[in-house]
Automatic annotation (TrEMBL):
Highest taxon above the source species: Bacteria
A molecular function (GO) term: acyltransferase activity
Protein name: Lysophospholipid acyltransferase family protein
Signal peptide: none
Domain Phospholipid/glycerol acyltransferase: 25-143
SUPFAM superfamilies found in the cross-reference section: Glycerol-3-phosphate (1)-acyltransferase
Organism: Nonomuraea insulae
Alphabetical UniProt keywords: Acyltransferase, Transferase
Length: 218
């Protein structure tokens, strides 16, 4: 995918040195486009980490693509089913094996009208609490210009720029040793999403909204 990534976009990559080069780590990122997993994977790979991605389970059943996804160590996710717990269990094992998991806490591309991160789901927080793995916030911008959400044809011209910035580890120390109760996980998730949003605000040079967009309570 690297030659394709180079062909499609120019890159503005910042602070890649903040990514731990070894050990299990959770990469928490905002989600703007179906293209950003590929572009982010290129960024992570070039900064010394093999990106393990959580992917829709249906992709694993597609001929050829399913075999490729399995070979990439991707983790199948059945959203809205009891099997979702199984994906977290697999993620915990990947972290124990020293993998870097690319996690989209929003669960889908943002629906915020101005493309800021939405309220996150608690999977990444639960994984961090149970594993003790560091959470690194990563924000990006530009993938939505290449392939806007919901569109199938990329907008190749003029050539877009993919901007990425890596923040310091999210400070989750106050939650250490606590039980994974709903209120704890929600607070952790809010801290994680705030860190991602702060990086995106720096990247965009704009002030983020004080309250994140909540698609359930809009």
């Amino acid at each position: 995918m690297k030659p394709l990534s180079r062909l499609l976009v120019k890159k503005d990559w910042r602070r890649g040195e903040r990514l731990p080069r070894t050990g299990g780590v959770i990469i928490a990122a905002n989600h703007l486009s179906w293209a950003d997993p590929v572009l982010l994977s290129h960024f992570l790979y070039n900064n010394g980490r093999w990106p393990v991605i959580l992917a829709k389970s249906g992709l694993f059943r597609v001929p050829l693509l399913g075999r490729a996804v399995k070979g990439l160590l991707a983790i199948p996710v059945d959203r809205g089913s009891a099997e979702a717990a199984r994906s977290l269990s697999m993620s915990s094992q990947r972290l124990a094996d020293g993998c870097a998991i690319l996690f989209y806490p929003e669960g889908t591309c943002t629906r915020d009208p101005d493309l800021w991160p939405m309220v996150g789901k608690t999977g990444a927080a639960r994984l961090a609490l149970e594993s003790g793995a560091p959470v690194i916030p990563v924000a990006h911008w530009g993938a939505q210009e290449l392939l806007p959400y919901g569109e199938k044809r990329p907008r190749l011209f003029p050539r877009k720029t993919f901007h990425v910035i890596v923040g310091p580890p999210v400070d989750l120390s106050k939650y250490a040793g606590q039980e994974p109760q709903a209120d704890v996980l929600r607070e952790m998730t809010a801290d994680i999403m705030a860190a991602v949003t702060a990086q995106l605000a720096e990247l965009r040079g704009k002030k983020a909204p004080e309250t994140p967009y909540d698609p359930a309570g809009r």
